[in-house]
Amino acid sequence: MMFLALREIRFSKTRYVLIVTIMLLVSFLVLFVTGLANGLGNATSSAVRNMSADRFIVQKDSDDRFARSALHAEQIDQARAVAGAEGAEPLGVQMTTVTKRDSESKIDIALFGVPAGGWLMPETAEGSRLTASETGQVLADRDLAESGVAVGDTIVDGATGLEWTVVGFTENQSYSHMPAVWMNEADWAAYRSELMAARGGEADPAYNAIALRVSDAQAERLNSTLPDAEVITKSQAISAIPGHKAEQSSLLMMIAFLYVISAFVLAVFFYVITIQKTSQFGILKAIGARTRYLAGSVIAQVLVLSFGSLAIGVALVLAMKAMLPASMPFALSAGTVLSSCGLFLAVALIGGLASVVKVARTDALDAIGRAGA
Amino acid sequence: MNTSLTTESKHTSRRSSGASQSGSSVSTGLARPADIKLRLNEVSHAYGDGESELTVLDGLSCTVRAGELVAVVGPSGSGKSTFLSIAGALLTPSRGEAEVGGRNLAGLNPQKLADLRLHEIGFIFQGANLLPYLRVEEQLRFVAKLGHADKRQAVRRAEELLERLGLTSRRRHYPDKLSGGERQRVAVARALMNDPSVILADEPTASLDADRGRDVTRLLAERVKAEGKAGVIVTHDERILPYCDRVLRLEGGRLREG
Predict the structure, then answer these.
(1) What pairs with residue B70 in β-bridges?
(2) Is pTM, for the whole model, over 0.90?
(3) Which segments show compositional bias classed as Low complexity (chain B) (predicted)?
(4) Pick the CATH number of B2-257 from 3.40.20.10, 3.30.1360.120, 3.40.630.30, 3.40.50.300
(5) What is the pLDDT of residue A369?
């Protein structure tokens, strides 16, 4: 089937180069926007996405948002009673503004208070880990380094005046476009009481949420036993992060449209050239070529063109990725590239279907008694 | 009608010279059943349904033997295309039997019919109808490939055919670089490529001038005789009739010796 497909491409180079160019631009755009969507998704949610929790408990009517949710110490005890001590860990989340000591420039960060040594605490990539006993120490996302903060530096909270020393960096921990900064339970408690004191000293809810590693049955039971709280999944928690859903849905819509466009571009291109070649197909059927062979030739062409444009498109995107500044949120893993390419090929094949139907309907009888070729 | 009859009888009288020119020793009188490559028996065909039925062929019978080139002539609308479509396994007749290369076409499914066309029938169309994007030798190799022929044999067969048809120097050309006559010679070679039993030509000289038309027909007649094919040319072109062994007239849905 490749015999005809390749020779026709060789013969009508211009026509096929043009269609490959269009496909290549579309596939480049698909991959680029996908990378951007992933990158933005990471920037808003990687701190939560990379947690090894599968569900969270939040306050009822908090719209699944950690920042709006407040849980009391006794709710944490109740959760632990059902989920086990290992199955539930308290999680404090607070967005705040800090400055590096002896510096004026403000940095927005997301503070995460979790038990030191627990499974919510991320891996340390550089520097040392947090312990339960040492206070005044934090672990920060490496993005903070771009604001000029290094391991050993001290940052000062703008609201409370508390000072923390950055003892280590983590990778890929950001929340709502802010670098995540992790502290232990003691520091979190101190921070909360300072904060509440600054605001007028009302009763202090200890944490914002409880991270869970539980079975479905346990989650069910937690949902029904805990008063004024509900169990949500990780993806619910992620899509409730401010900005996440809006960014992702608009980018996803662009990606979806690009796929639809590429399907239509291919469909129209192949349908038009198939119509031009109807008499050829009639002749080929008359001399004994089976419909399956001819349809296979059309599909082979679709695949050759799609593979070609995808290969160039992927190469361009990878080159682009290498040239992008590090601050640009762009993430494209090999798996994402492969699945995007797979989807692109599937869409291309759907685009070729109209032509296959046209080929199948061509009658060999048309070959007799006609002068045209 | 009268004029065509007289020209035809003139051609019939010159028939023997055409046959001897191509050096054939096939006698039309002595045919064993195995020599019969194409047989249509009491074939009728009608288009339309019920009330407005148009009968095109009405009890048509004919046999063509190996090494014999037969011309079928007749006014337009006399059913030449229908005849060719039925003989070419493209159309199943309403009634009657068609046999190609000793195989009855009745009851074959579309795939079987396509295979039979591929291996047993060589078509030559009005325009050459070559694939514009294949070089001359690829046109032939493609047909062999469709028939799953051995590649080396196919290359040898293609070379031989191109040489016989005087196309060796043109074998790497695309059809748009060939003259009309050359194109039609490639079409002849393509029809012969898979060594079919029957060659069916549909007005093969319609788009050629007189000399080229005669050339192509002469070469076709030569190959039909040398390779023992049954050849049928449906034509309007009376200048090529001398190269044919028999001329049949399609009239009233039947074939008569001209």
Answers:
(1) B232, B246
(2) no
(3) 15-27
(4) 3.40.50.300
(5) 67
